[in-house]
Amino acid sequence: MRGALHAAIALALATALGGCAALRPKPAWELPPPPVAEGPVVPQERLHRTTLENGLELVVLEDHGLPRLEIGLLLRRGAEIESPDEAGAVALMADVMERGAGARDALALARAVEEIGADLGVSAGMDSVSVELSGLSADAGLLFDLLADVALRPRFDSREVARARAETLAGFEQEKDNPSALLGRQLAATLYDGHRYGLSVSGAPGPVARLDAAALRAVHERLFVASNAIFYAVGDLSEQEAVAQVRARFGAWAAGAPPPPGPPPPGPTPPARRVVLVDRPDLGQAQLALAHEGIARTDELRIPVSLMNTILGGGGFLSRLMSRVRADEGLAYGIGSGFALRRHPGPFVVSTSTRAPEAGRVVGIVLEELERLRREAPSRDELRNARSLSAGRFVLGLETSAAIAGSLVELDVYGLPPDSLDTYRTRLNEVTLEEVHEAALRLLHPDRIAIFAVGPAELLRPQLEAFGPVEVVKP
Amino acid sequence: MPKSACLAALALLVAAAPLAARAKVDDPALRTRVTTLDNGLTILTLPDPTTPAVSFQMWVKVGSRDEARYTGLAHLFEHMMFRGTDRLPPESHERLIESRGGRVNAFTTADHTVYHADVAPDALPLVIELEAERLAHLHIDEATLASEREVVLEERRQRTEDQPTGRVFEALLNLSFMAHPYRVPVIGWRSDIEQVSVAVCRDFFDTYYAPNNIVVSISGAFDEEDAIARVRRAFGRLERVEPIPRNPTREPPQRGERRATVYFDVRSPILAATWHAPKSGHPDGEALDVASLVLSGGRSSRLYRGLVYEAQQALAAEGGYWELDDAGIFYAFAMVRPDGDIARVEKLFFAETDRLRDELVPEAELAKAKRQIEVSLLRGTATAHALGSRIARDWVSFGRIRPIEERLAAYRAVSAADVQRVARTYLRDEDRNVLHLVAPAAGVSLEEPAAPAPAAPPEGRQDPAPAPGDGR
């Protein structure tokens, strides 16, 4: 406070005296960052929530700034409902839903959307599926019609299923050209073998090759029931009109029952250190990841954990990993860490890429930093910066109404309190250094972390052997 | 297509009246205030109290096209702008902004170098002072340059050398421009990055980072008078530099198709092609944009329909007009399916670009492409950052801010005959460049032959050892 007051007086004097050099204000960077502001971020006056008789929830966020409208339907389950031997059904269902609905076949649907300059996207995640459509508010009626057709009356023409399936299968092959895709697949397979998390949302060639129109219809029937859905409308549309539009098209939709969520993955993984190399002799870099199990989206520790992660590798140039690996050592263009927050604990991953001869050194530094965060609590400044960075990114991330609505429906998927956005910054401020340290002790396990590298195995093996038993796989 | 769907599509088309008839576009960019300081610095301010953020951007009119001897210098220098001043240690700039909750980054293109920070309104004074600090007192030494050089080489490996698409892009520009500096990748060639010295960096800084070569834009929640006064105070003492040297080389007319092959260990080959097109701001630009959308605006577009959907030979296919300040290209790109045939894809691919020359685009397709452009123009005003970028980019490239209404009118005026005319003018076979990226043929070795170690440059380090004195 004293610093700020001093600066304010200096500034006043400097202005009064016409910028006399001796009295020039202190540089702004010498002032400490202000404490994290708290308070609501959701514009309640523009937000309306309703639930239809069939259980369909509706969120409307009015914003008349631009003549635009974004609408969407979110289903509160995703690829998690599949067993590993039907993995990919939800993703392929989403793909084929864009290829014909209601009276329109694939081309007619694409034209109907594109003729009004709209964008349609059906996407599958592990925990949810979304059908989203954006365009001009002047086309509201048609946008609602198209969305209802795609969500409720997808055609699943067998010709389209065959095309989409062939593209997905070709995509699995093409992915092998991409080092980071190879890394992601190997990481999931090693950590979650036998569980749905062991494969990406798009599944795997074996099960996908067996999927047909009947299988996709069946999975669509399970997911698309009103009691499993939340509808949102954001933009240049009144609440009354939005509710009327939704009721007219979704009011008679059967309530049904949401499918049960997928089973949780087995506990700690991996049980012991291991090193997995995906051999790509032609690459100059090693794509690296260190990973083990993390936490669920709803974990009570999620705020201290996110601050701990910000300090470790989630906080840009303030993070310890970025400081050491990039700024100090020039070993990578970027390095980051994060927890995949899903219904059940997804992986905690540190990832980077470095020139292949330095892979061992980078892995060593990452392990040291994981140990250090366990050994001692971070400093007060680090916690303050992590809070400030988290709060700042949070506010910047909610600049548009679409972003606010997107965050609200995401909370709903996980059954988190609807006021979570408004209380978020208060919760950040409440976290103590001890809690951050406790989070590191409970959740970071460098002693049994799995180490992955995609690159020239011949060069990587001797560098990584010291960290654990090595296994080399072909892409 | 069944007849009923055809009729439905037609009905929709009739319903899709021009945008202007239904929605009045309130273009906030028209409220931009322009201030020019005595030293030539331009300040664009666009306050909007309804947003929680303010975006500060500094656009420097220098890009890879201005590099004289060391390719990649503009980009490497952008990195050095974060490595400390006489008073602030390396990375202070971004750490100070991040510790106040801001987002900060920079990027370099062939034409421009852009530094941007999005922050809460109370951090704007800090951002202005930090920006002026590094312009006035940038510190570059052997140690920071040595470690940053390694970072940039990692960036080059990650984004270009180990990525099939990165390799394609690099080789394609090189094939397309025989003379113009656009032939050089923005990140530069490895040899040059390895040998840039502190003296070379300083000279580049003194030459191009002059106030009369810089445009600052501030948009979002801020007090306009206060911000202009702060920029004036912080930047006003910088000295004008005259003249700013520009590279004179222009691309001579191409005299026949050029082809190249790049080997990479891929399952999915890539086909790419370019034609020379006019520079940014040319009156043919709108018709070329419309042609881009006809080719690749969604699942009903021609390249998707032809290559991905009907022939099932490609995983993705797109094309478009890419405009730069000095020249443009029209490009087309297809990722061939692992079970596909690149020769067949090429045939189908050029059949689609030829069709733009040979036939008039039907009215329905034209209207669809134009509507897609109209709607996307509106999206560019949704955030403080997007608005700040738009006004600054327009100012550095055109010396004015182009109103959305003016751009909409230009797109609406495009006729099917215009699209055909620009296709005939620019998409000529003799002006075409064709690139294939494929897995190496049997017996082809991509190992580099052993070469004698190059002599060490007079300054700088080449080994990947940690930079001395960096153990903060």
Descriptive report:
The complex is a heterodimer of chains A (475) and B (472). Chain A contains 17 helices and 12 strands. With 475 residues, chain A is an alpha+beta fold. Helix content of chain A is 43%, strand content 17%. In chain A, strands 1-2-6-3-5-4 form a 6-stranded mixed β-sheet, with helices on both faces. Chain B is an alpha+beta fold and 472 residues long. Chain B has 2 domains: 28-235, 2-Layer Sandwich (Cytochrome Bc1 Complex, Chain A, domain 1), CATH 3.30.830.10; 253-438, Cytochrome Bc1 Complex, Chain A, domain 1 (2-Layer Sandwich). Chain B is built from 17 helices and 11 strands. In chain B, the strands form 2 sheets. Chain B has a 6-stranded mixed β-sheet, sandwiched between helices. In chain B, strands 7-11-8-10-9 form a 5-stranded mixed β-sheet, sandwiched between helices. In chain B, a hairpin with a 4-residue loop joins strand 4 and strand 5 (113-119). The model of chain B is unreliable at 1-22 and 453-472 (pLDDT under 50). Classes of the chains: A alpha+beta (475), B alpha+beta (472). At the A-B interface, helix 3, helix 5, helix 11, strand 10 and helix 13 of A face helix 1, helix 4, helix 5, helix 6 and helix 12 of B.
Determine the oligomeric state from the structure.
heterodimer
Low-confidence stretches of chain B: 1-22, 453-472
Count of all domains of chain A: 3
Number of distinct helices of chain B: 17
CATH A-level architecture of the largest domain in chain A: 2-Layer Sandwich
| Shape annotation of chain B | globular
CATH architecture of the largest domain in chain B: 2-Layer Sandwich
